[in-house]
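Saturday, quiet lab. Running sequence design on the structure tokens for the scaffold JK sent over.
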């Protein structure tokens, strides 16, 4: 028997410290969402997506969750926000209307007994026969690897959603939505809210050209191209052509640097830097840029390319 009392879990969702980063207004929420989207500590549904972070924080706030708890306990399943099972039972147990939740499993059937204050006990079950009827038994993934746990999640979801809809605000359970395949016509139809995306404007060509050298420099120093794409996507929409350009440039960086041929000009990087910075003619600037190919040091060549790009933008706008 797996019995849980409200007293044991009443502080399950409370922060360990009084320090609180919860936004106090919409502007703070927008700023905080941007920081979260750039963090490596958020789930993939929120990485590089400040809009998803903002909406998840609002959903969580309506349920009584702090911002970081919201991002860790809310999932986007088929475009719809849902709560993971452990967060569901924690919210219910923390509610003053819950008297107890008791979970059992006899090896074939999961049983969830719940009681709301001033109301009779309610019982919900989910057996392997139910799993067979729903087309879940033997399904690749958790239903094959952890059938007992999945039965428990189903029985729990039925009980808590039926008895405590006010506490959960009608929020669906992630484990349930994961089992509902879009092509499964026999499954309950879940109305999709659509992905919580922010429509970003495309990167302007001049800003893209100015930013690209520093992005390549970061990749050359160990950052992955996926991290770079996530950051770029949080600031603007990367077009297919821009992504191809970035990947092509990264591929060039990853090729071993070949020794300069005997016929290659002897280029002084310091002089070339000074000449490009002082250049006032776009054609001359392109001519100077051609000399960068003779530089064999990758870091020096990247810095020269960055100087060239910045000067190019300056002359084109003059």
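Result came back. Writing it out in full:
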């Amino acid at each position: 028997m797996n019995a849980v009392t409200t007293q044991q879990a009443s502080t399950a969702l409370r922060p360990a410290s009084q320090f609180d980063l919860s936004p106090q207004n919409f502007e703070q929420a927008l700023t905080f969402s941007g920081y979260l989207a750039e963090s490596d500590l958020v789930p993939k549904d929120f990485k590089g997506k400040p809009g998803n972070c903002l909406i998840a924080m609002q959903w969580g706030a309506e349920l009584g969750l702090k911002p970081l708890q919201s991002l860790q306990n809310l999932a986007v399943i088929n475009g719809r926000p849902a709560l993971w099972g452990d967060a569901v039972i924690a919210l219910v147990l923390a509610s003053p209307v819950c008297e107890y939740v008791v979970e059992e499993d006899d090896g074939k059937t999961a049983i969830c007994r719940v009681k709301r204050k001033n109301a009779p006990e309610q019982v919900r079950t989910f057996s392997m026969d139910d799993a067979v009827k729903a087309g879940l038994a033997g399904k690749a993934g958790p239903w094959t690897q952890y059938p007992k746990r999945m039965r428990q999640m189903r029985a729990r979801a039925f009980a808590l959603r039926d008895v405590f809809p006010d506490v959960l605000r009608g929020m669906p359970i992630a484990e349930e939505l994961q089992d509902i395949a879009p092509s499964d016509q026999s499954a309950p139809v879940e109305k999709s809210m659509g992905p919580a995306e922010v429509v970003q404007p495309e990167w302007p060509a001049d800003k893209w050209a100015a930013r690209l050298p520093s992005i390549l420099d970061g990749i050359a120093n160990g950052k992955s191209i996926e991290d770079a794409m996530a950051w770029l996507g949080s600031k603007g929409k990367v077009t297919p052509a821009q992504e191809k350009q970035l990947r092509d440039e990264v591929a060039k960086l990853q090729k071993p640097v070949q020794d300069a041929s005997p016929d290659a000009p002897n280029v002084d990087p310091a002089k070339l830097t000074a000449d490009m910075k002082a250049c006032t003619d776009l054609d001359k600037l392109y001519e100077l840029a051609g000399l960068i190919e003779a530089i064999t040091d990758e870091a020096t060549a990247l810095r020269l390319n960055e100087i060239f790009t910045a000067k190019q933008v300056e002359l084109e706008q003059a």
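Notes for JK: The two ends are 77 Å apart (CA to CA). Strands lie at 2-5, 74-77, 80-83, 98-105, 109-116, 122-127. Ask whether to fix the surface positions before the next round.
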